[in-house]
Amino acid sequence: MQYFDVVIVGAGPAGGHCARLLAKLGYSVLLVEQHESFQQNIFSSAATPLETLELFNLPPSVVASFWHKLEIVTTKVHRHWEANNTLGAVFDFAKLRAFLAKDAEINGAKVWLGHRYVKAQQESEKLLISLKPKRGEEITVSSQVLVDATGFARAVMYPDKRQKPKFLKGTGIEYLIEVEQDIYQKYAHSLVFFMGYQWSPKGYSWIFPMQENQFKVGSAWIDAPHKFIAEVKPLKFYIGQIIKDYLKIEDYKLLDVHGSILEYSIGLNDIYYREPNIIAIGDAVSTVNFLGGEGIRHALKGTEIAVPYIENYLNSKCSNFRQYQEEIKSYFAPKWNLSEQISRRVYLEYSDQKIDQGVAYLKYLSLSDLMDILFYYKFEKFTRGLGGYLKSKIGQMLGKIKSLWSNKL
Ligand SMILES: Cc1cc2nc3c(=O)[nH]c(=O)nc-3n(C[C@H](O)[C@H](O)[C@H](O)COP(=O)(O)OP(=O)(O)OC[C@H]3O[C@@H](n4cnc5c(N)ncnc54)[C@H](O)[C@@H]3O)c2cc1C
């Protein structure tokens, strides 16, 4: 039976990064992924601020495009901002995951694609882990530590799906399309977000640029009842509408349709570890920010919090991962709890008019304030924008009073 210090299940951003970091530290690592190729399961839109590349040591080869413009479109309002410098990237999600796994392999890890995790059993200090290859018989390997990096599936922490608690659920679908050069150029460096009842009731939609002449056009919503909207059309309807009525194109090549779900634990009440040697990272412990559905950067960060604890366990410096749970919760909880509350309010309780108004106020914000709200969850900056709006309204009122007064005189 093959032995590994650490077996990591799931080769998404969290699992791949974990394998890479532990392999670089000299541990024997097995990274297991149920899909046979990274070209399968390309579900993520994968937009991220620029800092992600440097923070997590990622090469430009995993990037599909760079952006420096932001646009927000609602039923009645359209706002846009532009910077002179690059603000962020859109990953090629297949290339990103393939790079992380390859880097792990270069540093000595084993990567087994097309292997599904089945179960684990404790035997003295080690775990016996059963894996099912796409073709062939079940295999058992042993390890000191087992990592659940299976995203929303949480396959290690909940081997029986029926025992999963209720999560806040989001669903997203995305078209990868090829368009004419002139249309591509118009949005080649922009992230365009859509909100409001026309484009995306119960969530938001988007156009993200990919490499030459390709866009991702997607739509996502929260799977929960809306205060005002009784019925919504399928997500594909809103994607089609953005392509036809916003981009105004009839003729495009549909290259791929993909999608997935997010399952987020309200109040961050996931199972972070099981005694003594099982630990969960990434979306398996709700590191995705539910307001924007941005999760890659946070899965990578959560992994970097986890790795020193895994190392400590391997070196008998701790006997479980309780402190990891404390550290990761205190890192994420304050902003994540607020983001989740705001997401439910905006996507499920706001009228269309209120969404128009909210986005209209954004014109009082600078681009850096907007980036702080969208990517760093500094919601106090929105209130500052509201201050600008109120100031201008008061200014207008004072102007009117002054002119009425001078007419009287
Ligand atoms: C539609 C959509 C759009 C998104 N857009 C963005 C975006 O623009 N920017 C951003 O930063 N984030 C985005 N996200 C979120 C982001 O993709 C996730 O937060 C991120 O991928 C989480 O990484 P992870 O490694 O924790 O999990 P995942 O990426 O979900 O990886 C989990 C892996 O585990 C594997 N697995 C599951 N069960 C088993 C099993 N039993 N055995 C073996 N392998 C298994 C899966 O196949 C998968 O490869 C989006 C998500 C969705 C659904």
Automatic annotation (TrEMBL):
Pfam families: FAD_oxidored. InterPro entries: FAD/NAD-bd_sf, Geranylgeranyl_reductase. This is FAD dependent oxidoreductase. It comes from the Bacteria. Coiled coil: none annotated.
